[in-house]
Design brief:
The protein is of the alpha/beta class. The chain is built from eleven helices and 14 strands. The strands form three sheets. It has a six-stranded antiparallel sheet with strand order 2-1-4-5-6-7. Strands 8-11-12-3-13-14 form a six-stranded mixed sheet, sandwiched between helices. It has a two-stranded antiparallel ribbon with strand order 9-10. Helix 6 packs across helix 7. GO terms for molecular function: ATP binding; single-stranded DNA binding. InterPro entries: DNA-binding_RecF, DNA-binding_RecF_CS, P-loop_NTPase, RecF/RecN/SMC_N, RecF_2. Keywords: ATP-binding, Cytoplasm, DNA damage, DNA repair, DNA replication, DNA-binding, Nucleotide-binding, SOS response. The RecF protein is involved in DNA metabolism; it is required for DNA replication and normal SOS inducibility. RecF binds preferentially to single-stranded, linear DNA. It also seems to bind ATP.
Length: 373
């Protein structure tokens, strides 16, 4: 996947701005507050239906404006037929007041999820170490995003599970346990068991891409093990039994305490002394390996790389670590966006082909070429 055009209107500080990125590495520089992150945020918004700067979509609309627009055009390889054939796709998103509307390839989309399914972007930003050190929700969302893009059957399963969970929780809250609680528990189990299995298999596959990647970019961290936690004692009993067993407690609490919605996964570092206390830089490298490993898995499973967006890559990583990450990125066939107030120091050491952009005064222009090593 390669984004060939990004247009923003009345988005954050931009009145109207356009970016025509290239394949491979794109570096976007600019002073603090110039709007570099906002450019990546707009791509992320199109690909996820939300910003990476929190759940709330408020604040995206330029001060004083009544609507915003994001337009993305990209090229992707057509999976069947001639391997060299590509198609151009276009997606638009408009937000006015409370309403969001989307268009994909000239057609109105019924739900923003259709845009998310079409455009695959993985984002890494200074808060991404939450994937390692933050709440389980970050890690579940990460797994589910990957599965959503590589397995068509995952989304219907996930929706079925979410619906049954909502129903069971509503019954628990109202105390009306005779109104079909058992049927909803069966439904939860029927959707939750395969959902959980898919997550586990996906995590096992990720271990194969992530472990060598982390070993390459941060060799000091040693071996890793990804450990899946299903959200109930799956080794001891099926989900339906676990729900039955938790029923009394759940009635008291008014919500469902077991199931894949409480699942999690962990990265273990068996060889690392003090492994519970990764430094911020180490946590950042680990989260970066998780995100890039997911991109590599996506490329393997789908035959095309997602777009990789790395906000402020240089911060908290020393020169050598930056260099290793950049070399890996340059060897991949992915389109990559990197932002920074300056070119990352690790980039200057390498003889890489980088397209340069500079954001200033609400505009994007071509940036100065990198100094050669
Ligand atoms: N809704 C809005 N309307 C107008 N300006 C906004 C809005 N939201 C954010 N801004 C401005 O946009 C800028 C933030 O942009 P962004 O975070 O993309 O900058 P950046 O170049 O990534 O900065 P840094 O290098 O400091 O991370 C700030 O100057 C902020 O005041």
């Amino acid at each position: 996947m390669q984004i060939t055009r990004l247009d923003l209107r009345r988005f954050r500080r931009f009145d109207e701005v356009s970016l025509a990125p290239h394949s491979g590495l794109n570096l976007i520089t600019g002073e603090n507050g110039a709007g570099k992150t906002s450019l990546l945020e707009a791509m992320h918004l199109m690909a996820y239906g939300r910003s990476f700067r929190g759940r709330v979509r408020d604040g995206l609309l330029k001060d004083g404006a009544t609507d915003l627009e994001v337009f993305v055009e990209w090229r992707e390889r057509v999976s069947s037929g001639d391997p060299a054939s590509v198609r151009v796709r276009k997606a638009g998103l408009r937000h006015s007041g409370q309403d969001w509307t989307g268009r994909l390839d000239g057609e109105h989309v019924a739900q923003l999820g259709d845009l998310c399914a079409a455009l695959a972007v993985v984002s890494f930003e200074p808060g991404s170490h939450a994937l390692v050190t933050g709440s389980a929700e970050n890690r579940r969302r990460y797994l589910d995003w990957g599965l959503f893009h590589v397995e068509h059957e995952f989304m219907p399963l996930w929706r079925r599970y979410a619906r049954a969970l909502k129903q069971r929780n509503a019954l628990l809250k109202s105390g009306r346990i005779r109104d079909g609680l058992e049927a909803w528990e069966r439904e939860l189990a029927e959707a939750g068991e395969p959902l959980s299995r898919r997550r586990q298999l996906y995590l096992e596959a990720l271990q194969d891409t992530m472990a060598p990647l982390l070993d390459r970019i941060a060799p000091g961290l040693g071996r890793i093990d990804l450990e899946y936690q299903p959200g109930w004692r799956r080794d001891a009993m099926p989900l339906e039994d676990a729900l039955l067993l938790a029923r009394e407690r759940d009635l008291q609490a008014g919500y469902t305490s077991v199931g894949p919605h409480r699942g999690d996964w962990r990265i273990q570092f068996p060889g690392l002394p003090g492994r519970e206390a990764l430094s911020r830089g180490q946590a950042k490298l680990t989260a970066l390996a998780a995100i890039l490993g997911q991109a590599a898995h996506h490329a393997h499973a789908r035959g095309a790389w997602p777009v990789i967006a790395l906000d402020d890559l240089g911060s908290e990583l020393d020169r050598a670590h930056q260099g290793r990450v950049l070399e890996w990125l340059a060897e991949s066939a992915a389109q990559v966006f990197i932002t920074g107030t300056e070119p990352p120091v690790g980039m200057v050491d390498l003889d890489l082909d980088v397209s340069m952009f500079h954001v200033e005064h609400g505009r994007v222009r071509d940036g100065a070429p990198l100094p050669r090593p």
